[in-house]
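Wait, mind explaining this?

_____
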Amino acid sequence: MTARTDRIDQLLRQEIGAILTKDVQDPRIGFVTVTDVETAPDLSVARVWVSVIGQPAERDLTVKALQHALPFVRHELGSRIRLRRIPELQLRLDDTVQRGTRVLQLLAELEAGGVVTEPPPVEESLPSPMPHIPLPEPAPRKRRAMGRKPRR
């Protein structure tokens, strides 16, 4: 990678993320984050790595919707950035969050002295290394008497 392609990768990542959040009006697209862009040295192809949070069925639907939206995104890039040729966009799913969560789970099991088990079925929309524990209800706030503000 050269410094030029690194700058172009960074610019494409920012612009594609902005287009997906502001300009693409597809309700099938859920919570998507553009994590990385890798551009070929001749700028003909750019691999766009995205992270999608949600259930597996929701992820698949979001990836299909993103594939459908890529020509629009490429067209919008042409009006936002000045390049002689806008690269063809190829979508890739970034699953580093899920793999990282699995590694943390394995480490916790080994630390506890337990036997490493198979990964549980995906039930949560957000991967997390710890089980979901509901937060306690906040204490009710004291009401001030109307009138003057207390002195500090």
